[in-house]
Each structure stands twice: as C-alpha cells, then as structure tokens.
Amino acid sequence: MLADLVTGRSIDGRVLEAIELIWHEAALLDAKDYRAWDALWTEDGRYVIPIDPAIEDFDAHLNMVNDDSRMRRMRIERLTSGYSMSALAAARTVRTVSRFTVEDRTEDTVTLRSAQILVGFRRDTQQTLAAELTHRIRSTADGPRLELKVIRLVNSESAVNASGYLL
C-alpha cells in the first residue's frame, strides 16, 4: 500500500487498481483503440454524459449520451467505420485525469470521482473540454471493469462540439 501524501493514510489496493484502470481507459481513448476500450466494460455498463450537471436519474432526463453496451458498440462502429462525419476527420486527443476521491466502496465496487481535461485537435482547431468524472469500477473474475462512467462537462448546458471522439 502507498501512503496518501495529503492524509498519511494507506490507500486501499482496490482504489489503486481502479485508478490504474481509469488511466488505462484514458490512454485507450486517446489512441482511439475503441474495441479495447469496450472490453474494459461490464456487460451492463453505462456510459453517460448528462446535460444537467446535477441529475442522478439519467433515464428520466435528457442526456447528450446514455449508452448501454448495445448503444456503446453502435457508437464505436460509427467512429471506426469510416462512413460517418465523426470518423472521417477524427480528432487527435490528449486527456489528463486526476484529483481522485473515493465516493463509495462496497464489497465488489469502488466509485471514484475525478477531474478530466481533454484537449482535442481537429481540422486545424484545438478545443479544450473540462469535466467532472464519476467511475464505478466492479471487481470481476477477469479483473476490474467499468460499470458506470458519468462525464459531467463543465459547459454541458451550452453548445458542446465534441464529435469525433469519446469522452
């Protein structure tokens, strides 16, 4: 176990494993390795980008994205097929995920909140997006897997142009 530099407490090994998974997820997304990214998910995993930053009941509200595994795979197909506008001139991205805090721990899940800064470059234009992330990581026989990812963009209630990559 590593010592938490701020509090001096030990960091739970499952929390470290979850943070490593989130960093690995960010690297896969920047590399546009969407099939490997999809393999990180539980079968019932949800990928959500709400419009209202305060909501928790995603099914009862309008969202930019609210994908189950079927919709997530359809989104990946659109991004990788070469036939959609978002696939033709896909943005290059670099993201940083940091400021991890433990939101909840159960016997088989760890829920972390973090901050993400994503810089995308597409068609000679650079865009910066900031977001609060929530990841719920489930321990499985195959290792830790993403069960929930919520991306709360700081500008979610304004016009957001993030096509060409996953957040």
Could you characterize what this model shows?
The protein is of the alpha+beta class and about 170 residues long. It has a single domain (about 15-155), classed as Nuclear Transport Factor 2, Chain: A (Roll). Helix content is about 25%, strand content about 40%. The chain is built from four helices and six strands, in the order ααββααββββ. It has helices at about 15-30, 35-40, 70-80, 85-90; strands spanning about 40-50, 65, 90-105, 110-120, 125-140, 145-155. A six-stranded mixed sheet has the order 2-1-6-5-4-3. β4 and β5 form a beta hairpin.
Brief account:
The protein contains four helices and six strands, in the order ααββααββββ. It is an alpha+beta fold and 167 residues long. The model has no long low-confidence stretch (mean pLDDT 89).
Q: Which properties best describe this structure?
A:
167 residues; alpha+beta; Nuclear Transport Factor 2, Chain: A; six-stranded mixed β-sheet; globular; dioxygenase; Rng_hydr_dOase-bsu; oxidoreductase; dioxygenase activity
